[in-house]
Each structure stands twice: as C-alpha cells, then as structure tokens.
Amino acid sequence: MSHLTINFKSKSLNMPVMLDVLMPQGHGGYKTLYLLHGAGGDHACWTLKTRISDYVEDIAVVMPSGNNRFYVNNVNGKDYFSFIADELINNCETWFNISRNPEDRYIAGMSMGGYGAFYAALKRPKQYNTAFSYSGLLNLIERYDNPQGIDMYPVFGTREELIDNNFDLYSLFNKKGTDDSKIVDNPTKFIIACGLQDPRLHMSKDFYKEAKEAGLNVSMYEQDGGHEWDYWDKCIEQTIKCIAGVFAPVAGVLQNRFHQI
After folding, report:
1. Is the dihedral angle over the CA atoms 195, 229, 245, 209 positive or is it negative?
2. What is the structure's pLDDT at 246?
C-alpha cells in the first residue's frame, strides 16, 4: 500500500489543493472510496486520527481538503462541488489505475463530510455505488440557524438562498407538488451510521425516515458512540469491509450493541 500526499492546482477552485491517497500496488482497476472530512479538518485527518491505513488492502482511498466549505459550489466563493464530483474523479481516474465504472466508485464522510457525500450522491444519481454518512450534518437548515462558529454565509448566502438553491438535502428528493413526489430515480445506496450518544442523532433518524418514504435505497445503523474519532474509526473500518464485500453493515463492530433500524 502506497500513501501519497499530492499538491496540485485545481481548475475548478483556481487554487492549490492537497490530497492524501492510499493506493494498493498490484493488479490495478481498484474500487475507489472518496472520503471527506468534517468541519475544521483537512486532507490528513483520516490518516492521522484513525487506523484507516491498517484497514485498507485492495481498494483506493482519496481524501481531499474541503476547507469548511461543505463540498458545494459556494454562493460567494469557490466551486467545491465541481471539484469533488467532477475534477477530482477525472484526475484520479487519469493519474491512477483505478476503475472508471460507477459501480466501483464510493463516497463517504463524517459530520460536514457526511453532508457532502450525500449531496454529491443526490446531485449525481448514477455516479456512485454507495454513499456513506457518519454522524452526518443531514439537516442543513437546522445547522444554518445554529452555525456554532462556522461562517455559513460565504457558502450558502442567506437562508432564503440556501433554500432556493437546493442546498438542503431534503429538497433534492422531496418533489412536492408533483405527481411523483414519492418516487426518486436514484440507484445509489445510502448508508447512514450514527452513534447513540451523538447530539445530532435526530438528524440521521429524520433523514432516514424521509429518504425511505421518498423511495431512496437507504439503511441506517446505530451503535454506541459520540461525535468523535473513536466512533468514526469503527465506521471507516466497516465501510472498507463493506466495499470489499466481506461484511455487510457499516458500523457493526460490537455485534451485541449494534442494530439496524
């Protein structure tokens, strides 16, 4: 396994960006996980704060920096969605011997990165096999109303602009006022994991309920844990096993305390 740190100029962002990449050395054509960090983090978070390097064997993992900009095309700033969903994938599939098949492409993230992963998978329905959210910030309007130190105006503009531009995840699958309001044409699998002691557990539960009613292929798993790296380390271990096909649930390390909703 090679661990690469890459610095290059993004055309979408018009600035230098950094990536950490875990790349197997062997036959090529690997499945790839695009792994997003949360608020206050960067490209190195996952390798510094979890044992991901010990878990990865036969898949590639790409970890970009999101700079607290929620992985969307900002109203008053940079085009982070174009970077994550277009440029990053195109570059990685050019630079590395990884699969170009959407069935072999995955996206995941914790907290703000969970929002970014689901936003990308909802905006690009056929681009990813599965999207994973760990303790995800899945109710964006609630967080906008209680920003907790993050300046959200450069990203989303006013509250009205946030709603009008469909940054809220619910707006991407709730087609109110149409005949097919409960039908969503998105083959992506959505997997939600959240700790039972996480103060934002309600966001995951509410999103799961609404997404299931809207027809998305969504599952939710709960386990002891808070909004913390010890829990997300368990999540990434099981996600890698899930992608590799050796374990189905995303966060079921402690089987006696793990259950699916």
Report:
1. positive
2. 76
Cα–Cα distance between 138 and 112 in angstroms, integer? 8
Element (H, E) at 120: helix 112-123
Contact indicator for 144, 162 with CB cutoff of 8 Å: yes
Quote the tokens at residue 46. 């996952």
Q: Which residues contact 176 (CB under 8 A, 6 or more apart)?
A: none
Lowest mean pLDDT among 20-29, 68-77, 87-96, 243-252: 243-252
Q: Which two tokens stand for residue 142?
A: 């609630």
Dist. CA 137–CA 148, nearest whole Å: 13
What are the start-end ranges of the E strands in 111-252?
130-134, 189-195, 217-223
pLDDT reported for residue 258: 43
Contact 156, 73 (CB under 8 A): no
Between the two ends of the chain, the Cα-to-Cα distance in Å is 35
Between 157 and 26, name the one with better pLDDT: 157
Burial of 244 (0-12, 13-18, 19+ CB in 10 A): middle
3-state secondary structure of 66: coil
Reported as a single tens digit per residue, the pLDDT across 137-180 is: 999 999 999 888 788 999 999 999 999 999 999 999 876 544 44
Which residue is it, tokens 């069935």?
Answer: 103
